[in-house]
Amino acid sequence: MLSFAGLIFGIVLLIAGGGLLVRGASEIAAKFGVSPMIVGLTIVGFGTSAPELVVNVVSALRGETALAFGNVVGSNIANVGLILGIAAVLAPISIQGQIVRREVPFLLLVTTILTVMVLDKPLEGLPGLIGRTESVVLLLLFCIFLYMSAVDVFQDRRSDPLMLDIEDNPLMKPPVDAGRWQWLLVVVGLMLLFIGGEMTVRNGVALANALGVSANVIGLVLVAIGTSMPELVTSIIAALRKESDLALGNVVGSNLFNSLIVLPVSGLIRPIPLPPGGVTDLIVSWGLVALLIPVFYIGEARLDRKVGGFLLLAYAAYMASRFLFDQP
Question: Which residues contact 104 (CB under 8 A, 6 or more apart)?
Fold first, then answer.
């Protein structure tokens, strides 16, 4: 099917563009003397979410708000259920530092706020909507997250395991003698991102029409998995290195970026009506994050292979049910 092939090719361009953007920006940062730790926390962390951001911006501009919603919520579900599940199966994950220990509850708070925002129908009798007001509130929450991160960098860098992991074994190691093509990598990366984003949205909508499902489900199941591939690779590398806080921090940071930047930026461009099944999607996303609280804060504070396997099964079962029982 041409639309499916076009969707896959668009996602490949998104991943390639995000990779070139991260590499170019990391080399530029290294050239100006920015430490690998700062590069890991900012450029690499936000760069892995670039595909989701571009897909949502293009979706909002084209009026495909259902796909934009599905991409964000689906990526958040995939990050915890699929990516964290795979990482835990490869190597059990423990919380060692205070930074990740604080960010997990903050993610639960953000997910709760996002879920409450769309409960307009049961609370006020109005259709659910992520409008411009809600988008501004989410962006203000992102400012709080940035402040927390800045404090972490300048105060806890010498004592927290996450900071030490990033500083000693960065996932992106810019070469010392970075060449003169860094800006070209950034420009080409951005071009591939937007070309891939346009192809992904156009073919995703066409595939939804061909299969008789909603664009929200295509975003939730296929586009979200594709745009989450950078997070999957990053978390697998961290898990194989036995860097638990880095694997978990990557997932938590990506979900926070999706909820506090990707979704509200889309909502500012065009308000996002809640698609059918959207409340259930958010509740599932909330439930997966809520599951991490007793796992990491009671007993050994450890996500073992059994829980990782449960996350994978729960993710697969929910995605299958959404695809099979969706009503466009």
Answer: 95, 248, 252, 289, 292, 293, 296
- Contact by Cβ (8 Å): 140, 259: no
Which domains are present in the chain? Answer: 2-324 (1.20.1420.30)
Q: CA 58, 64, 69: angle at the middle one, nearest 5?
A: 90
Dihedral angle sign, alpha carbons of residues 253, 140, 282, 287: positive
125: left (phi over 0), alpha (psi -120 to 50) or beta: left
94: phi then psi, degrees, rounded to nearest 5: -120, 150
Residue among 167, 277, 274 at smallest CA distance from 221: 277
211-242 pLDDT, tens digit per residue, is 888 888 888 888 888 888 887 887 787 777 77
- Looking at residue 272, the DSSP 8-state letter turns out to be E
* pTM score of the predicted model: 0.85
The answer to whether 18 and 189 are in contact (CB under 8 A) is yes
Q: 3-state DSSP call for residue 273?
A: strand
In whole angstroms, what is the distance from residue 79 CA to residue 56 CA?
17
Q: Which of 218, 161, 170, 175 minimizes the C-alpha distance to 8?
A: 218
Do the beta carbons of residue 97 and residue 244 sit within 8 Å? no
Instruction: Catalogue the E-assigned strands of 58-174.
Output: 93-94, 129-130
